[in-house]
Design goal:
Elements lengths: L1 H11 L2 E3 L6 E2 L2 E2 H21 L5 H20 L7 H9 L14 H9 L11 H13 L6 H19 L6 E3 L12 H14 L9 H19 L1 H5 L1 H14 L2 H5 L25 H18 L5 H22 L11
Antiparallel strand pairs: 1-4, 2-3
Helix pairs in contact: 1-2, 2-3, 3-4, 6-7, 8-9, 13-14
The structure holds 2-acetamido-2-deoxy-beta-D-glucopyranose (NAG) (6 copies).
One 2-acetamido-2-deoxy-beta-D-glucopyranose (NAG) binds next to loops.
């Protein structure tokens, strides 16, 4: 039963197991358990996003039933007596209408201990959901919901990571019906970055300037969808590009060392996008330099050699980011 709850914490915190090791949760394998269980919350959120005639309480009833059915199928006969207990505990982590509050009891305490989670993983989820819920209740077609849902999920993921010892090897669930292509905005930014980097890993040498122009255009397009302010104010637009580009690797790795600024020079609304200390940018530059030099100076470098440099530089910059930056929980909020 406890492996089951563990699986569900992964599921409901919006996290996925990265490991391919397959283990069973009751009668279900983990893949099936997570992907099917995730459908309960996805269905609720999708209905709220797309069906103006439904409401939160009706959808929550469906979500609860969906979850309970799924729990019942996977727990099977052996753990039949635990279905309600487990389903109720897990419901604290799913999206709800704002009237669900964790109430501790001795049995939850035993379950939590066995899965190495503090009860805080289930408590005060309002901190994560309330801003999204407010906006959702105000207007279900608000384009800002794309960003807010992504932030809320990220917040839940951070909460689970902080309060459970099981979440290190997980990546995020990126499903987001409020965004173009049903995908979290960060993933779309990564998409621009992938294109940028990919153009340097082939056999031809692209010209930095034209790749940078295409990259900025790609970022612009993505930001517009979840950050309307971005389009209106040039200063904000420049600062967001600065902050975001400082984390992305392609530009620094292949083209420009000229990515340097002080947090204090950024617009105050943009500063949360850059939760790093003053060592971050110089250290990133140290990671990038060997690769950039190899790329620039060696006309005859092979793709395989370049790839090796690239992997080293990525590894180095991962460490630098983990050491010098806080996790990016907050994202631009409009006042
Ligand atoms: C997991 O279970 C599902 C449904 O029972 C099945 O279709 C799938 O092949 C299983 N996956 C693995 C890796 O065993
Ligand atoms: C939500 O919808 C259900 C069914 O459509 C309806 O019975 C219920 O009164 C609605 N609740 C609210 C709070 O509007
Ligand atoms: C909801 O947001 C959409 C898109 O911004 C807008 O067109 C619509 O007028 C808003 N509706 C209400 C009731 O504010
Ligand atoms: C959505 O996906 C399609 C195809 O997968 C792609 O061509 C398009 O650029 C994507 N749009 C956005 C905004 O990411
Ligand atoms: C690249 O070319 C130079 C001479 O132009 C040569 O000395 C060097 O060994 C070559 N490097 C590789 C990796 O082939
Ligand atoms: C990445 O760096 C860490 C130490 O910073 C090292 O232990 C690890 O082997 C490196 N991995 C690769 C693939 O270079």
């Amino acid at each position: 039963m406890f492996a089951f709850v563990l699986g569900f914490i992964l599921l409901t915190s919006g996290l996925w197991m990265q490991t391919t090791a397959e283990y069973m949760i009751g009668d279900c394998n983990l893949t099936y358990f997570i992907s099917y269980g995730q459908k309960c919350q996805r269905q609720m959120i999708t209905n709220l996003a797309t069906n103006p005639s439904t409401n939160c309480s009706a959808e929550y009833q469906d979500e609860k039933e969906c979850l309970r059915d799924h729990v019942a199928v996977c727990l099977g006969r052996e753990y039949h007596g635990h279905i309600n207990l487990v389903a109720n505990l897990l419901l604290y982590q799913l999206y709800h209408c704002g009237n669900v509050e964790y109430k501790h009891n001795a049995i939850y305490g035993i379950v939590l201990k066995s899965i190495q989670c503090q009860r805080e993983a289930f408590m005060d989820t309002e901190i994560c959901w309330s801003y999204f819920r407010e906006r959702l209740n105000a207007n279900r077609t608000d384009p800002m919901l794309c960003r807010e849902y992504a932030i809320a999920k990220k917040c839940m993921a951070e909460k689970a990571k902080a309060n459970c010892q099981i979440c290190d090897r997980l990546r995020r669930d990126t499903f987001n019906p409020f965004c173009p292509n049903d995908t979290d905005p960060w993933l779309q930014v990564n998409d621009c970055e992938h294109k940028f980097v990919a153009s340097f890993l082939g056999n031809t040498r692209p010209d930095c300037r034209s790749v940078e122009v295409a990259f900025k255009r790609c970022l612009d397009k993505r930001f517009l969808t979840f950050c309307p302010d971005y389009a209106r104010k040039q200063r904000l637009k420049d600062d967001i590009q600065k902050a975001v580009t400082s984390f992305l690797r392609g530009r620094r790795f292949f083209c420009s060392q000229d990515i340097n600024f002080r947090t204090i020079d950024l617009d105050i609304k943009v500063r949360p996008l850059f939760p790093c200390n003053s060592q971050f940018l110089p250290e990133m530059e140290k990671c990038a330099l060997p690769l950039r030099d190899a790329y620039r100076l060696t006309q005859n470098i092979t793709a395989a050699q370049l790839c090796r440099h690239f992997k080293t530089a990525v590894n180095c910059s991962n460490d630098v980011q983990a050491t010098n930056c806080k996790p990016l929980v907050t994202f631009l909020r409009t006042p």
